[in-house]
Amino acid sequence: MTSSTTDREALLATGRRVLQREAEALSLLGAALDGGFAAAVELILAARGRVIVSGMGKSGHVARKVAGTLASTGTPAHFVHPAEASHGDLGMVMQGDVALVLSNSGETTELADIIAHTRRFSIPLIGVASQAGSTLLRQAEVALLLPPAPEACETGIVPTTSTTMMLALGDALAIALMEHRAFTPDHFRLFHPGGKLGAKLLKVRDLMHADLPLIAESRPMSEALLQISRSGFGVVGVTGATGALAGIITDGDLRRHMEGLLSLTAGQVMTRSPRTIAPDALAGQALALMNDRKITCLFVMAPGEAAPQGILHIHDCLRAGVA
Fold first, then answer.
1. Where does residue 265 rank: exposed (0-12), middle (13-18), buried (19+ CB within 10 A)?
2. Which of 310, 214, 220, 320 is nearest to 264 (CA)?
3. In a domain, 194, yes or no
4. What's the average model confidence in pLDDT over 253-276?
């Protein structure tokens, strides 16, 4: 029992040491950022083509992620494996592109051909490495030097702290480019139409139904009941003489007016001033409103407009994965 406790304490101590070292390295990286970072952003902004991100080994894994982050935040980017580049994939790297190459040592053999290719065809090169005098940084138009920080392992040989700094630096570049381009959630959703993220960024107009269940307030409740049954939404909107939305009839309204219901008009039964939602609101906002008010439908109305554009049911949000 004592041995198990001691082992757990040792494991926790190791975990905390690793996280502390990597956190300290990120603080060093933030303090070390200088005009080179701004120059890298400007170089990418000026490019007519894509950002070609490359790296070997663990740096290559980071490079793939950096390319993905750039591409999803408005900066066209593509990962090119340096070994594959030497066997034909250099054709993917063209004039007008910018190369972003990651290497802890800056001397990775497999990077030689892609670096030479950028020099031959005057393709701007941004190098990221830990060695100031390395081949990569000497050849690069913009050299981003990682600050000296020990790897997280005691032997100092496992790429940990260095790859964390590369990853964070890639994120910093992507967000700086994103903010300069005023990249919005609307743009982001275009690149993330699927999955949980895409669902969270859906707008009401993406899910609403344009075929509205509506009835004039002067019409008898017999017609309102037929409209409720046909639409499948469980509600009907009630409009005034000008077509403006005057109210809504729900199952609660029907229960409250059960006695003599068929002798009444829609206007006599409806609940006035129903809750509505704007078409450009996020679907998540609509779902939150429906949950808060314990209702199942919202009519969709543009600001300043009196007539509804659509209707949104809570099931539409749930089917789309909005939660």
1. middle
2. 220
3. no
4. 94
312/291 Cα distance (integer angstroms)? 13
pLDDT at 190: 59
Domain ranges, residue 243 = 204-319
Co-location of 309 and 241 in the same domain: yes
248 - beta bridge partners?
Answer: 237, 271
pLDDT digits (tens, 9 = 90+) for 23-79: 999 999 999 999 999 999 999 999 999 999 999 999 999 999 999 999 888 888 999
Tokens of 24: 């300290």
pLDDT value of position 291: 92
Question: Is 190 among the domain residues?
Answer: no
| Cα–Cα distance, 56 to 83 (Å, whole number) | 8
| 222 belongs to a structural domain | yes
The structure's pTM equals 0.63
| Nearest Cα residue to 51 out of 30, 79, 19 | 79
Q: Are 169 and 261 members of one domain?
A: no
pLDDT in tens, 265-306: 999 999 999 999 999 998 889 999 999 999 999 999 999 899
Residue 144 sits in a domain of what CATH number?
3.40.50.10490
Measured CA to CA, the distance from residue 128 to residue 280 in angstroms comes to 41
Are residues 24 and 113 both part of a single domain?
yes
**279 and 210 share one domain:** yes
Quick check: is 89 in a domain? yes
Nearest residue to 63 (alpha-carbon basis) of 191, 159, 183: 159
For tokens 């006035």, what's the residue? 272
